[in-house]
């Protein structure tokens, strides 16, 4: 049976640099079964406690760089992002954003670790870092005003604003069905989930603290 097209098929061929964080190489290897040569990462990094031996050997033979990072205070995702930024700078690459596929499924503690990496990302790279898995996308909005175009045809129906890591004392939005005006967002008070769009095609968000934007994407 032919494999259905996924974000991997759309994004990886156009990527200026491709990387896997440890066990992510297992998912890439098995997901692209029969066409692995078309989806080779430039490097795989991590402490290599999750990558399967046969997967590690396969990519090593194919010439993929293996970078062992033993620091246990940071996740493999965070360390992979640090390496990625250094390589972007060294190669002088012109990129728009960093897209991560995976990290939002399975163990809840690892999902939260992916979110926590987005907080580190602000100090690692100047580029936007988004995370996509299946029908979900997340992006950490920094304090200030943001304009999001939601008229590409790839958006799903729902969206949300999650004040994770800290309360947000003032959040104002336009373009949503249920907008906020100088609203406090914090756990135990209000979290904006299961929101949707007003049809204008543009969402603006102004926040005084980092705020997690999440939205549905079509599969």
Question: What can you tell me about this protein's structure?
Answer:
This protein has 219 residues and is an alpha+beta fold. 25% of the residues lie in helices and 31% in strands. It is built from 5 helices and 13 strands. The strands form 3 sheets. Strands 4-5-6-13-8-11 form a 6-stranded mixed β-sheet. A 4-stranded antiparallel β-sheet has the order 7-12-9-10, with no helix packed on it. Strand 2 (43-46), helix 3 and strand 3 (65-68) form a beta-alpha-beta unit. Helix 4 packs parallel to helix 5. The longest helix has 17 residues, at 108-124. The protein is globular. The protein starts with 6 loop residues before the first helix and ends with a strand.
Secondary-structure topology with pairs:
Blueprint (H helix, E strand, L loop, with lengths): L6 H5 L7 E3 L2 H8 L11 E4 L6 H9 L3 E4 L7 H16 L6 E4 L6 H17 L4 E5 L2 E6 L2 E6 L5 E8 L5 E7 L8 E3 L6 E4 L6 E6 L3 E7 L2
Parallel strand pairs: 1-2, 2-3, 4-5
Antiparallel strand pairs: 5-6, 6-13, 7-12, 8-11, 8-13, 9-10, 9-12
Helix pairs in contact: 4-5
């Amino acid at each position: 049976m032919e494999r259905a097209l996924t974000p991997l098929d759309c994004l990886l061929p156009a990527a200026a640099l491709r990387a896997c964080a440890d066990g992510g190489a297992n998912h890439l290897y098995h997901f692209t079964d029969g066409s692995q040569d078309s989806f080779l990462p430039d490097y795989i990094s991590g402490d290599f406690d999750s990558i399967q031996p046969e997967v590690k050997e396969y990519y090593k033979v194919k010439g993929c760089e293996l970078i062992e990072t033993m620091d246990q205070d940071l996740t493999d995702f965070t360390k992979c992002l640090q390496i990625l930024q250094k390589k972007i700078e060294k190669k002088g690459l012109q990129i728009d954003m960093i897209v991560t596929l995976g990290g939002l499924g399975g163990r809840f503690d690892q999902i939260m670790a992916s979110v926590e990496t987005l907080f580190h990302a602000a100090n690692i790279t100047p580029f936007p870092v988004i995370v996509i898995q299946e029908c979900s996308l997340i992006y950490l909005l920094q304090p200030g005003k943001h304009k999001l175009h939601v008229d590409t045809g790839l958006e799903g129906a729902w969206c949300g604003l999650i004040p994770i890591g800290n309360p947000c004392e003032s959040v104002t939005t336009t373009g949503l069905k249920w907008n906020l005006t100088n609203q406090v967002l914090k756990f135990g008070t209000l979290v904006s989930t299961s929101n949707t769009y007003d049809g204008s095609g543009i969402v603006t968000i102004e926040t005084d603290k980092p705020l997690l934007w999440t939205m549905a994407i079509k599969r």
